[in-house]
Amino acid sequence: MSNTVEPDLVIFGALHRDLVATLQSPHQEGASNPVNFALSSGGVGANAARAAIRSGHVQTLRLVAPAGSTGLAPDVATSGFEGIDICPVPVPGAQAGRYVAIVDTDGEVINGYADTSACDSADAVSLMNECPASARSMVVDANLSTRTMETLLSSLPIARYALAVSPHKARKLMTLAKLVDTLFCNRLEAASITGLPADEPLPTLSKALVDCGFNTHVLTDGAADILVVDAGSRSPVAVESLKLTVSGNAHGAGDALAGATIAACHAGETLVSAVANAGLTAARHALTQT
Predict the structure, then answer these.
(1) To pair with 30 at 20 to 30 A between CA atoms, which of 60, 111, 165, 207?
(2) Is residue 170 helix, strand or coil?
(3) CB hemisphere CA count around 268 (13 angstroms)
């Protein structure tokens, strides 16, 4: 996909198939549960990229996506990616990524299962070769390996954002704090990075992130207030109006919040303003769509 405007925001991260099963009735452990299946294109990098474009703060961006050894399947990026310059990078020996999620009748995620071996095996040089020379901001998602993220983040003197992805994958970022300008994570991911219990108060987790070197971060906690820490200034952002609808689910809401926030910061907004306006608008869109 090509654009007339050279992209100056680049996202390195996952683009793959999502299979989401929504329960028709309350979940019963160890039993066959009736669900409605939905197949779509997803991945943390892809979700963030679409939210960034939808925010209206950028005209175009580049998504550099590690793919299976044969590249992307033809149907993975056929719709919903207008304005996004997709650069799939085949990874020899890797399978195409996939993600399966089970959500309950209220739209909350019960469990998610990700196969992102292509991202974890991707070579930093191959990915960096697709970085536009015009890039002013870059995003890495923690589906990539620590070594690859370190190389990407240290390659260019531009704004650098990291998405924690999951508690398991967030640990890959523990040694990269000095290279990350802004971290996006949730309560469970912050606990994984800091080693604190997940039930610690959010300000305690936030302080621990700063102690780890993540001086600027956006820390989310479901429907609770977001904590935005920007070089020593801590600001809560209220999200009381951010609720699921009967047709939506929480799958991808955090990715959307991050993508739209980054786009707004890229366009010149402060981090707090970007979260409160663009970020929450994008998360609300994710929560209200099927």
Answers:
(1) 165
(2) helix
(3) 0
Evaluate whether 146 touches 124 at the Cβ level (below 8 Å): no
Give a yes or no: residue 174 inside a domain: yes
**Total structural domains in the chain?**
1
pTM of the model: 0.91
DSSP label at residue 196? -
- Give the CATH number for residue 238: 3.40.1190.20
Convert the pLDDT of each residue in 153-198 to its tens digit. 999 899 999 999 999 999 999 999 999 999 999 999 999 999 999 9
User: Contact at 8 Å (CB) between 88 and 71?
Assistant: yes
Position 24 in a domain:
no
Closest by Cα among 231, 234, 197 to 214:
231
Segment 5-35, tens digit of pLDDT: 789 999 999 999 888 898 999 999 889 999 9
Range of the domain at 169: 9-16+42-96+115-287
Structure-token match 């977001």, residue found: 226
Exposed/middle/buried for residue 199 (C-beta within 10 Å: 0-12, 13-18, 19+): exposed
Residue 177 inside a domain? The answer is yes
* Cβ-based neighbours of 225, under 8 Å, separated by 6 or more: 202, 236, 237, 238, 239
